[in-house]
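Crash report, auto-generated. Payload:
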Amino acid sequence: MGMTFAQKILAQKAGLDSVEVGQIVTVTPDFCMSHDNTAAISKIFAKIGVEKVKDPDRFVIVLDHTVPASTEKYALGHKEIRQFVSEQGISHFYDGGVGICHQVLPEKGYALPGTLILGSDSHTTTYGAFGAFSAGIGRSEMAVLYATSKIWLKTPETIKIVVHGKLEEPVTSKDLILKIIGDIGADGALYRSIEFSGEAIAEMSQASRMVLSNMAIECGAKNGYIAPDDKTFRFLEGRAVREYHPVYPDPDAQYEQTLEFDASKLGPQVAKPHTVDNVSPVEEVAGTKIDQVLLGTCTNGRLEDLRLAARIVAGKKVAAGVRMLVLPASQEVLLDALSEGLIDTFVRAGALVLNPGCGPCLGAHQGVLAPGEVCLSTANRNFKGRMGSREAEIYLASPATVAASALTGVITDPRTVFDGGAK
Amino acid sequence: MNEGRVWRYGDDVNTDVIFPGKYTYQPLTPEEMAEHALEDLDPDFAGSVKEGDVIVAGANFGCGSSREQAATCLKAAGVAAVIAKSFSRIFFRNAINNGLPVIELREGIDTIEKGDTVKVNFAKGIVIHKGNEYHFPALPEEVLAILNDGGLIPHVRKELGKA
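Recovered output after restart:
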């Protein structure tokens, strides 16, 4: 019997010929990622009683969640991390400003087909878009990986999601994943591996695919795999830190279920407060007054997202009383956006451009919400209190919907303002 | 056998409401974390939770962020076990790794209400509520060993001969 991607890669990493669903295996990840939480992880590591990190080259550390430090406590955490990576000889270290971890690992060539990547961050699923098996873990588990390079994983069931047709601009992969999560629910893929496939996925850019894998966790998935293809290999040219060997599911693999969606009929979607699966077509929430919009994060802070938003706001002004925050996902994205004139477009439209990083997405700094305020965001979570006050409301949408709404001050269907514009 | 008072919550309790992001990157002790436990879901919880209390919830408990403090703060607050219809996988791992028992219970869970008393026999896999016995599946051996050692760090210390 054939194996799914999850079975195949876990068998390979465990040194076995095959694994059954439900089987627990002990594996050594190819790469392990942590961010600002490395300060806390290093303290847990100290409690284990092992002095040196077993294999420093396996670990990639990116400061992004609270950069630049807005409090003394954050600054101290960053200082402790710099000291830790220096003492332990961890050379794959990216200090604040390089970008959001889930953008930096692909850009710097760690997110490779056929690799196993674990990160102490739930959106580690993002690297599935490159054909990696990647999943989130906790801080203690990362500390133990420092000491032993080993961890147990259970082999999950797999749900196959096939997306037919093509997305029609300005509808994006964000609308597609919101639609999927709205349909199957916040626990629709709990403990499962997802394999995304179909015409819409094949047609999609590498950046758009990352949105799907990034948000696979929002329906409970362990990982969200997309078969790597020429687009993936081209992206990795000149970036890959080492050779890689793609892993594909067997044609006769057994799936728990197969779900089918049609991209060609899809319109813009919005997730309403306070859960990601509370999804409606944009028409149903159009007219909702907003105080802030956020364009960025590990979900939608890439060049194609900024381009799409810039086409909508070019030559126009953000509505009075609305704050538009723009956070490029990385330094590379920021440089490209600068050279294409996108940053100029945003600033002239009245947006506030912030440094690459996680920004206010998790409510730690840079544009948190006051009680009663409403934010429309391109991020991946709208939980109560997520961006500051527990009495604030967060709606999630695509870069196009966010940009269109910034101009009107209310949630707006981007198809009403999008004329195809200059690409 | 633990006997505990029930705190009752619904489906999809996420780790942001269990332990808000604004505290996530601050260096706090488990006791300080406990002061913020469930702050954005039930502001009364942290002030009135007692040692041995039990949380009973619906499906997908602990979804969202991987932040381990969501498990650490409940353990430090004195919570003896979390019983839910299902758990998000990262929270499930974090709970075990912090020595916090997590119980997947399908049968009878909807009859349990806030303020009720439940008895949990982890070894036998039984929850007793109002005289009724409800069974839950045993954890895999490898996972149970971590919980029995009081969490991942003591477990690994033992394995490495450091304990």
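Post-recovery validation: Chain A has 15 helices and 18 strands.
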